[in-house]
Every structure is written in C-alpha cells, then in structure tokens.
Amino acid sequence: MGMARKNVDVVVVGAGIAGLYAMHRLRGQGLSVQGFEAGSGVGGTWYFNRYPGARCDVESVDYSYSFDDALQQEWDWSERYATQPEILRYLEHVADRFGLGDGFRFDTRVQSATFDEDASTWRVTTDQGDAVTARFCVFATGALSTTNLPNVPGRDSFAGEILHTGNWPHAGFDFSGKRVGVIGTGSSGIQSIPLIAEQAAELKVFQRTPNFSVPACNRPLDEATRSEQKAGYAERRRKSFLSGGGSPFVPNPLSALEVSAAEREAEFEHYWERGGVLFGKTFADQMSSLEANDLARDFAERKIRAVIEDPAIADALVPTDHPIGTKRIVTDSGYFQTYNRDNVTLVDLRAAPIAAIDETGIQTTDAHYELDAIVFATGFDAITGSLDRIDIRGRGGALLREEWTAGPQTYLGIGVPGFPNLFTVTGPGSPGVLANMVLASEQHVDWIGALIAHLDANGLATAEAAADAAAEWMAQCGELAAKTLFPQANSWYLGANIEGKPRVFMLYAGGFGNYGRQIAEVAAAGYKGFELVPAR
Length: 536
Ligand code: FAD
Ligand code: NAP
Description:
Blueprint: E1 7-13, H1 17-28, E2 33-36, H2 45-48, H3 69-74, H4 84-97, E3 104-105, E4 110-116, E5 121-126, E6 131-139, E7 161-164, E8 179-183, H5 187-199, E9 202-207, E10 213-215, H6 223-231, H7 233-242, H8 261-274, H9 290-307, H10 311-317, E11 330-332, E12 344-348, E13 354-358, E14 361-364, E15 368-370, E16 373-376, H11 385-388, E17 391-393, H12 400-403, E18 415-416, E19 419-424, H13 437-457, E20 460-465, H14 467-482, H15 512-524, E21 530-534
The structure holds flavin-adenine dinucleotide and NADP nicotinamide-adenine-dinucleotide phosphate (NAP).
Flavin-adenine dinucleotide binds next to helix 1, helix 2 and helix 13.
C-alpha cells in the first residue's frame, strides 16, 4: 500500500457502509478521492464486531445497498437477518465489484483536519505520516465505532482474557471449558450471551440495566422468497425512503388506546411474531404516549416472564426504568431462555455494583467471581465519539469537539457552522441510527455529492452551514424528540452512557422519510441555510 495522494478533491474518512459508498459515488462524478481507514480492511462495524451472534436487526433484504440494481439482484442473502461474516463478505464484494479498496489507505488513522482559510482547503494528517490537501472532507467515521471500555479499577491486572464485542479478535475466541463473565446487556451482550453460554463452562452475566428484547424470528431464506423480494425491490426501496425508519414497513395507524383489549392483544401478538424492532410499530402512539407505551411494555413483560423458569430471575430481567423502544429494542435469538441453563448466572449489579477487577475475576460489593475471560459488551461513545477523537479545526482555528461541548451543532446533520466543506454522514442531527443505516448513508452521500456538483457547476468554492440555520435545526431536533418518549431513557442516543457527555438527544426523531423531504427541499431552494462562497 503506497502513500496517500497529496492533493485531492475529497478526503473520505472511514471505509464502512457510508465511506465505501462515498468513494463510489464521489469518484463516479469525476472527483479525485483519498480514503483513510483505521482498520485493516473494509466493513467498519462489520469488520470490528466479530463477536459470536453478531447480526443485523434490520432485515438483510433492506439492510443492503440500493444504489445498483444489478448488485441487489445478484446478491443472495442466506438468512432473514444475516450474520456478521456474511455482511462483511457482502461489503468486501461491493468493494471488489466497484473497485473501491484502492481508494483507501488502511491501517491509517486520521488525526487532524485543519481548514486553511486563505486557500479554502482542508489539510488532513494521519498517524502514518500522510498530509493531504483536499477541497472537501467527508467524515464517514461511524456512529458506533469508538468502543467504550469502562475504566473499572484493577481492570488491567486481570490475568485472563479481556475482550470487547466492538473490537473482537479476528481469530475468534474459544470459550470452551472457561469461566466467562459478560458485562453489559445491550444488543451486543444479548446477541452474544446465548452463544457464549453454549460454549463456556460457566457464564456470569453482569447486568446493570435490563433491556427489552424481542425474538428475531430469524429464518433461512429460500430461493422463492429471495426471488419474490428481488422482484419487488423497486417498490420496497421506494417505500423505505418514505418510511419512518428506512425499511418498507409502516406503523399500524391505530392508537393503542382506541382499540378493544382483545384487538390490542392480537395486534401485539402479531407484531411480536413479526420479530425484533418491528414490535415498535404495533401502534402509532407507542413512542409518544406513555399510556400506550405501558400497554406494549406490559405485553413484552408477559412474554419475557413466560420463557424464564425462575420468577426471581425474571424479576431481575424485566426492564422497569425506561419505556419500551426508547433504547433500541434488542433483537435476539433465545436470550431470556439462556437463564434457564445450569451454567448461567445473572449477577444483578443494581443490587451490588462492580467494585473492582482483580487478577482472578470481578469483585462486586458483595461477592467475588472467579473468571478466565471477561467480555465487555459495554457499547460505544456513540454518534460524536469518533469525531471528537480527531483534531478538526475550522475557521479561526475553532476545534470541533470544543464547539460541541454543550452538544453537537449541525445543520441537517450534514454541515457544521465554522467548518466549510466538511460533511458528516449519518451524524448528529440526522435520523442516523434511528433509520436503516444503509439507506441513510446513501441518502446523505447522494446529497453531499449533489452539493459538491452544484458548487463546481456554479464557480463556488465553499458551502458552510449558517449558524442560525444550525441553531434552528438543532432546536427542531429537540422539539421533535420532546414529542416522543425517547428523552426518558438513559440511552446512548442522549450520551447518557458516557460520563461527562452532555445530555442532549442527538438525533432527528421526525422520521427518515420526512427528513429526506426536508433535505431535498433545502437542496431545491439552492441549499438554503448554507453560505455558498464563490471561488476567488
Ligand atoms: P462504521 O461502519 O462504523 O465505519 C466507520 C469507519 O470509520 C470504521 O471502520 C472506523 O475504523 C473508521 N474511522 C473512524 N475514525 C477514524 C479515523 N480517525 N481515521 C480513520 N478511520 C476512522 N444499523 C442498522 O441500521 N441496522 C442494523 O441491523 C445494525 N446492526 C448493528 C450491529 C452492530 C453490532 C453494531 C455495532 C451496529 C449496528 N448498526 C446497525 C449500526 C451500524 O453501525 C451501521 O448500520 C453501519 O454499519 C455504520 O456504517 P458507517 O460506515 O456509518 O460506520
Ligand atoms: P449498549 O446498548 O450501550 O449496551 C451497553 C451495556 O453495557 C448496557 O447494558 C450498559 O448498562 C452496560 N454497561 C456499560 N458500562 C458499564 C459498566 N461500567 N458497568 C456495568 N455495565 C455497564 O451497547 P451495545 O450493546 O454494544 O449496543 C450499542 C448499539 O449498537 C445498539 O443499541 C444497536 O444500535 C447497535 N447494535 C445492534 C445490534 C443488532 O442487533 N443488529 C447488535 C449490537 C449492537 P447500562 O444500560 O446500565 O448503562
């Protein structure tokens, strides 16, 4: 792998789903592009999260690129929700098919990006000694790409293996015969726990907060189903781009409070059987009315209790601290049943928190657990974490992370005041992780590509989000969130999982389709809210 080019139109940071498409789309419109990726290969999330049980929770037929019909017609997904190895194979296939790999420098972390006001260019440097000048910077650095490894006292003295789900060893890890502790019961913990339990001699699950999880109802896809899905792709994608969450499903328009108890129960049952996050669509008011949400929560609680043999364990596993759906609903395969196994113990950290890790295991305030391996399923410094770790300096030397100490400020989740020609993909202020991230990435990259084309066609050098436009946008995001129940949970959507992060709901909660309309209107109005400055 050679050095990076010295002078390009665009630097793209990240070779995940968003960065790969950015490389393809921007090159395709005749721009020179230099990509950088900290990992050794493409895939981002699907390169790093190799833990047992890792799968998507949006159906693969939808959680895949739409930009090339031949690609979507030719690729065969083997299951309704593909596993991490299959998704990684798919992304490697996309990189090969469209010749994207050679545009990236791998094993290379971008350390800084500095705007030169005289030249209207960005200077980007890396930990491998690259220094590249670019007119535009596209940060496709991922919403869930910086792991959160809690600094538990004594952690580094542990003599066994320490693993993090978000940075799993490529060779895998054999838990056979081992005493294993898993810390964390978010999506990553809940997906991996059943499989680790099957292999390990003993598994202790250290749970601080229980989570809602709905069975995936995963199944292999047969040829007939695949053919039917492929034949319907155009309509499927059309609906997805108009939908609330970027997949072709719309919520039941009924209110949970309007229907009879029997009808309600039948609807909940029907949506439960559809599997995973689709349960969140059972009733239109489930995410805005606490009363409606309580009914969904009660149904989920009964489902959870029905599969757990010991009622005391069930008590500890039923979430009580947040409305269902205000943290991402987890999509599992046999999670709650795992606690019926003899080799699995639930350690309730609400009763006795972790005090320390020592050479031989985990010490809570009331017991010591001897372990050979500890799995941190403790999540990510989400949404802003990867951007915060780069020294991004805009006009006047302003440092992005300092500008964002009270919470991120963007216009449309794409542009940042004071940072001309810098664009974020699925960043703060966009629907981001509330939508199907593949389509959300395509939507952003297409929009950014069109903006760059507009600048070039009109002799314009820079586009910079106006401060008042960004302030209005973030106020709108706040208002949209306030109409929902989202702010009631201590979730990573609000930065609540990371000490010291401002508690701000960082996403656009008005729906993916509505968002798409809003950004299209901005473009149609000559990129209203952006200051477009002519080339000198
Ligand atoms: P990423 O895939 O995170 O890629 C960002 C890349 O940028 C990374 O490879 C990183 O190494 C690189 N990078 C960051 N900083 C730097 C730097 N300074 N220099 C160089 N490189 C850098 N979303 C869904 O919609 N549906 C799902 O089913 C789903 N399942 C998920 C399952 C797991 C286990 C996880 C963790 C997330 C899941 N998500 C899901 C969210 C997922 O992150 C997105 O769907 C998507 O993969 C993100 O793609 P991306 O390209 O934006 O970011
Ligand atoms: P997460 O949802 O943030 O969960 C982290 C877990 O670790 C929580 O249970 C948290 O408890 C616990 N934890 C954190 N610090 C702790 C500490 N110091 N001591 C004890 N417990 C601690 O992270 P995640 O599970 O990796 O998921 C993040 C997101 O990635 C998901 O919401 C989803 O969007 C995506 N994802 C998707 C899938 C999928 O199914 N496709 C799979 C994995 C991830 P508290 O709640 O008490 O903080």
